[in-house]
Write a structure and sequence with these properties.
Elements: H1 2-10, H2 16-29, H3 33-41, H4 47-53, H5 59-72, H6 76-83, H7 86-97, H8 99-104, H9 111-123, H10 127-135, H11 145-156, H12 164-171, H13 175-182, H14 188-195, H15 201-215, H16 219-227, H17 231-236, H18 248-252, H19 256-272, H20 282-295, H21 299-307, H22 310-317, H23 324-337, H24 360-373, H25 381-386
Helix pairs in contact: 1-2, 2-5, 4-7, 5-9, 9-12, 11-12, 12-15, 15-20, 16-21, 20-23
Length: about 400
């Protein structure tokens, strides 16, 4: 313990070389459960507060501190202590606000930022952590602004900042988080939809989970997503295979978005000999069916699912699914979609709203203009301090 106290004392040194070595020594300690317990049990120094302060230090020192905090946040006791430290939240949010500068640079984003995102994901898995992130740095007037900034950073550099998708999923545990993503005046929802086609399975999974969270206990949100935002088509597209839809009548009645996906797959197969593959990750497929099953609990939503020929796609996909749990969910979904409505669940049913046809060209156009939506012009000096992204 004396050695641990010595390491922690050196973290406060005025000399960068001493802080660098001390942060490395502390990081090594966090590689074991015993080391984490020792650091968290130190009586003379607050290891979590000291490491939090170093998040804004020189790159290598900050990176060591961030990695150490990631390791410590895997311990429930240390994580609980970290969540309650205002110094931690001030440091990590201030550090992540600097991402705007890194995003505008053509260079690779420094690793310390990426590790801080990983750390933020760890601490926002709890409701308390997600609430604290929504609260942000600047008070109630700017509630949610730090989350908005993070989403915009992610949409600008999605491959490098893929773990922000996990943070968004955590935040949408809360009503305020869901409202933020569903805001019709911001590009957040369209960004989540776009990232459902990410090359990273973890990102695709996080996006589907975020959509699922947005549908929880909110029929109005479900109807908006299904009727106006093309949620059904976006969920069904990953389930389409190269064989497409066998029944010509079913194909003719498909939404244009899905027809185009099948036609493009046929074209790629003929010209490039590339087959369209269904979603490869079994957990993502299960989540897609889970979301469809969730919205199918309402009769008005079931009517939209039928209009969009959900069953036709599920019928072609189901024989290829080898996951038993997902297959059981499919049977439950089909039971709701087929047959008479009498005796089926109808939770707070509402009339079916006017259904907007989502065209592939419109989606591409929205992506083209998405970056324009990411630019923010602060209206006053106070607001300019809070809007820390400036994306060209």
């Amino acid at each position: 313990m004396d050695k641990v106290e010595e390491f922690l004392e050196f973290l406060k040194s005025n000399r960068p070389d001493v802080r660098k070595q001390a942060s490395k020594d502390v990081l090594d300690l966090t590689g074991t459960d015993g080391g984490i317990v020792l650091l968290n049990s130190a009586e003379t120094h607050d290891s979590l507060a000291l490491l939090s302060r170093l998040l804004g230090d020189q790159d290598e020192i900050a990176l060591n501190a961030a990695k150490a905090l990631v390791n410590m946040s895997s311990n429930e006791r240390a994580k609980s202590s970290l969540l309650e430290k205002s110094s931690f939240w001030a440091s990590i949010l201030e550090t992540l606000s600097e991402l705007g500068k890194a995003i505008n640079s053509p260079k690779t984003i420094p690793e310390r930022f990426l590790v801080c995102v990983k750390l933020l994901n760890n601490v926002t898995t709890s409701v308390f952590g997600a609430e604290r992130l929504l609260e942000g740095r600047l008070g109630e007037k700017y509630r949610g602004l730090d989350v908005q900034n993070l989403i915009l950073f992610w949409l600008k550099r999605p491959d490098e900042l893929a773990e922000i998708a996990l943070v968004i999923t955590n935040v949408t545990q809360l009503d305020d988080g869901r409202d933020l993503v569903l805001n019709k005046n911001e590009p957040f929802l369209s960004g989540v939809f776009r990232m459902m086609e990410s090359p990273f399975a973890s990102t695709r999974k996080a996006c589907v989970e975020t959509v699922r969270n947005c549908c929880l206990n909110n029929l109005d949100a479900q109807l908006f997503l299904l009727a106006s935002m093309g949620l059904c088509e976006r969920l069904l597209k990953p389930l389409l295979g190269q064989e497409g839809i066998a029944d010509p009548d079913d194909f003719d009645e498909l939404p244009i978005f899905l027809k185009r996906a099948i036609e493009d797959a046929d074209k790629n197969f003929v010209e490039k000999h590339v087959e369209k593959e269904r979603e490869s990750d079994p957990e993502v497929r299960r989540l897609i069916i889970d979301v469809l099953l969730l919205v199918a609990q309402h009769r008005s939503c079931r009517e939209i699912l039928r209009v969009k020929k959900t069953y036709a796609v599920i019928k072609a996909y189901h024989p290829t699914e080898d996951n038993e749990e997902t297959s059981d969910l499919i049977f439950d979904l089909v039971d709701l979609l087929l047959g008479e409505e009498e005796g089926k669940p109808d939770l707070d049913g509402k009339p079916v709203p006017k259904i907007v046809e989502i065209l592939p060209e419109e989606i591409q156009q929205s992506h083209k203009h998405e970056e324009e939506d990411l630019v923010e012009s602060p209206e006053d000096e106070e607001n300019s301090k809070s809007v820390l992204y400036e994306i060209d």
